[in-house]
Amino acid sequence: MMGGICSRKRNQPVVEDGICRAVSGRSGSSKWLGPSSLRPTVEQSSGGAGICPSLLELCICKICQDIDKYSSFSMLPRDVSQQIFNELVSSHSLTEVSLEAFRDCALEDIGLGEFPDVKDSWMDVISSQGSSLLSVDLSSSEVTDSGLALLKDCSNLQALTYNYCDHVSERGLKHISGLSNLKSLSFKRSNAISAEGMRAFSGLVNLEKLDLERCQEIHGGFVHLKDLMKLKSLNVRCCNCITDSDLKTISGLTDLNELQLSNCNITDTGVSYLKGLHKLSMLNLEGCNVVTASCLESISALVALSYLNLNRCELSDEGCDKLLGLTNLKVLSLGFNNITDACLMHLKGLTNLESLNLDSCKIGDEGLANLAGLTLLKNLELSDTEVGSNGLRHVSGLTNLQNLNLSFTQVTDSGLKKLSGLTSIKSINLDARQITDAGLAVITRLTALVSLNVSNSRITNEGLQYLKPLKNLRSLTLESCKVTASEIRKLQSAALPNLVSFRPV
Q1: Predicted confidence band at 48 (pLDDT cuts at 50, 70, 90)?
Q2: Of the four listed, 71, 230, 412, 431, which is most buried by Cβ atoms within 10 Å?
Q3: What's the predicted TM-score (pTM) here?
Q4: Rounded to the nearest 5 degrees, what angle is found at the Cα of 266, between the Cα atoms of 260 and 272?
Q5: Which domain range does residue 115 map to?
């Protein structure tokens, strides 16, 4: 039963074994009393003793199993009703009929993203939560303008997520214009969002996060954002309708902290409009291939940047000296550009870097000498470069490395010996034809490894024995090698108890 093990509103009845009983006592409710999934399980402690689920977990699980017996949970404390709701969603057991039991329950969070069959008829119960409702996720639902209109009474709503939905129109968007407490709004991949429809956003003066990824009809709509001075995060990735003029419109949003512009149709001129955004810490320009080295001068003014993605921007060595001043950078992606070792010499002073992506760049062994002082690096992407075994001597001192990608490089078995001191490495990709069983013998010194990919190599079944010391290994990929699934299974059974994913299978 639920008596004595969960918080209640004073003098409110509770449902025990299908019978409504009155109780009294002080409420000690909190927003969350436990995990979102409350199916009772008996966990094994290190000593082998079973740890029983709490009475609250057992009660909620039982209620969810017998959900058809209950017509209303409005007498329960909000936090308990919330957990029952969350469990029904998590177990895919919530239906339009069982949803009715949550009418007027003052729920704070309605997370129905990707949940099947959500439509306008569900919105009456959802909106009945009134001013208590703080967040709603209706992604991939069939909710239309009529359904959104019902949210107008949820005046305290702070987050609305409506991704992957095309059932709303400009008329429907007007219904959210009065939700002035909204802080987060997401309409990913919605062809219904147009420049004119964005007029509904102009009054959302408390908005801090706006996600319009893959919305292809929003060119010109940024004019409705220019007064949203609290906006901190804007995502318009893969919106190729976005041009330089759009960026000029938002150049005054000086609180912007994150700006995602990958695969937008902007040029160096557009990037120049960002120079005044001195709080910008994250800038993603991946795939903006009309951007040239000239944009780096504008970017150099953004000294607060900690994340910069310039993958696939057709950059060359020219202008890379402008990166020198970005000393706060922690993540830098320069992959798939025409840069060479000459660019890397300008990275030596970026000593706060933790992640560097040089995938498919024209760099070689000598260029890696410029990375030797970047001792905080945790992730290094060198795939499809001209790096060989000699270059790894410059990597050997990066003792904080956790992820290293050397696929499609010239690194050989002998070169891998230079990595033996990198005991923090958890993931290595060695997808390369020249790696043999002898290479695996070297890898066994890296006992922290969790993931290893040696596909397309000359590894054989005989070489698998060298992996036995890698007790932490969870993922092993050996596609197109001379190994068999049966031998990998033997290895798993005999020596690698944590291995849960391997190929071939």
Answers
A1: low
A2: 431
A3: 0.87
A4: 85
A5: 108-212
